[in-house]
């Protein structure tokens, strides 16, 4: 499986390396994420304390082993409050402010999506839920450290 390696460094915390699966392998392409998803997510951050945003992406290595750090990345890490299940989404923003979902994690979520008959629909539902039912999740949105 092709993987993305993300090094996260938040303030004085130790570095953390995350491995996310490239979704291109099981979706046969990257999932387009429209600007309104990002807008809604930012609006929720302003209203709900369980949704936080901050710098922390230190390095991103793609499946091609190239350094992709200096791109407009958004790493969304969240947990379902009831089941305490973690989900990770690596999104690349584009100049038109839309984006592409390029990788997911952790491994349990990847395995679930691979077994699904319609993984893109499962992922889309989950993304809709974090903006439609903000009380159900605890969400951290992490952007690159180089962003001013």
Q: Return the structural class.
A: alpha+beta
Shape: globular
Largest sheet: 7 strands, mixed, barrel
Unreliably modeled segments: none
> What is the count of β-strands?
8
Write out the strand line-up for the largest beta sheet, numbering strands in chain order. 1-2-7-6-5-8-4
Tell me the β content.
35-45%
Radius of gyration: 14 Å
Overall pLDDT confidence: 92
Element-by-element helix/strand order: EEHEHEEEEHHE
Distance between the termini: 34 Å
Oligomeric grouping of the chains: single chain
Distinct helical segment count:
4
Helical residue percent band: 25-40%
Can you characterise this structure?
The protein has a seven-stranded mixed barrel with strand order 1-2-7-6-5-8-4. It has four helices and eight strands. With 148 residues, the chain is α+β, with helices and mostly antiparallel strands.
Task: Pick out its properties.
148 residues; 8 strands
List the helices and strands and how they pair.
Layout: E1 3-8, E2 16-22, H1 24-27, E3 31-33, H2 35-47, E4 51-61, E5 73-80, E6 86-93, E7 99-105, H3 107-115, H4 119-132, E8 137-144
Parallel strand pairs: 4-8
Antiparallel strand pairs: 1-2, 1-4, 2-7, 3-7, 5-6, 5-8, 6-7
């Amino acid at each position: 499986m092709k993987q993305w390696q993300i090094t996260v460094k938040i303030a004085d915390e130790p570095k953390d390396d995350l491995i996310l699966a490239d979704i291109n392998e099981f979706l046969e392409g990257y999932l387009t994420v429209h600007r309104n998803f990002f807008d809604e997510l930012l609006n929720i951050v302003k209203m709900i304390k369980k949704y936080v945003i901050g710098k922390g992406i230190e390095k991103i290595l793609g499946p091609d082993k190239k350094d992709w750090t200096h791109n407009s990345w958004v790493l969304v890490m969240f947990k379902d409050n009831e089941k305490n299940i973690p989900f990770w989404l690596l999104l690349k923003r584009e100049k038109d402010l839309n984006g592409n979902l390029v990788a997911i994690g952790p491994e349990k979520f990847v395995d679930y999506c691979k077994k699904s008959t319609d993984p893109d629909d499962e992922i889309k539902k989950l993304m809709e839920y974090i903006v439609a039912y903000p009380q159900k999740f605890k969400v951290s949105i992490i952007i690159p450290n180089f962003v001013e």
